[in-house]
Amino acid sequence: MDDIHAPTMSSGPTSNGYSNGVPKKHMSLMELIAEKDRVESELLALASVLESHGVNMNTSLTTLDGYPRDDLDIAQIRTTRARIIHLRNDHRQLMGRIEAGLHEHHASAATPRQAESTSSSREDSSNISSFEAPFAKVNTVVPGSPAETAGLKAGDSIISFGNANWMNHEKLSKVAEVVSQNEGRAIPVKISRSNPPQRIELQLTPHRDWGGRGLLGCHLLPI
């Protein structure tokens, strides 16, 4: 008998290329970032599918005596989980390519900057920062919470949270550390938001006396 928890393979981009049909090795840095954004959006949608069934990636699909649970759409859950696993692998590869591309961009820009003015150096640094990658999605924001007061919205992508970023967030544990160390103090948060595409810098102050659970009042998902 097949393992009911083993995900079934679903259709989607192959390991040789992404949704735009361009082979991985031929994609520019901006194309890689655009593909990463698409993957993150699909992952968020798939997480919502699992949530609608009341399960996550680890929820058991069988009863205590080993029979399939009749209260779940087992086939859809297995297919959704398989797609999430596939996309997570793609996302890891994309982030590796993007990180390498950022290092190359930085190295290529460093030589001419040595002979330029300080203002020119700042401009180049600003251009490099435009390639910063988000590391978390805002899944939900509670009305009246510190997160809502700061301006966070569901669907926002977190680029930096204090000194936590895509290179050091350690599955969001760094975010929790920043929050616990800054209760009652404003934390600079940089986000990206679609419709229209924009980058926004917010000030989020964690505190307990807002009438809800936690210090932020929002739910973040790692990407």
UniProtKB/TrEMBL annotation:
Bias (Polar residues): 8-19
UniProt domain Nas2 N-terminal: residue ranges: 30-107
BP terms from Gene Ontology: proteasome regulatory particle assembly
GO cellular component: cytoplasm; nucleus; proteasome complex
Annotated region described as Disordered, given as residue ranges: 1-22, 105-128
Key word Chaperone present: yes
Protein origin, superkingdom: Eukaryota
PDZ domain: residues covered: 138-192
Alphabetized UniProt keyword annotations: Chaperone, Proteasome
The keyword RNA-binding belongs to this UniProt entry's keyword annotation: no
Family: Belongs to the proteasome subunit p27 family.
Name of the protein in question: Probable 26S proteasome regulatory subunit p27
Protein species of origin: Patellaria atrata CBS 101060
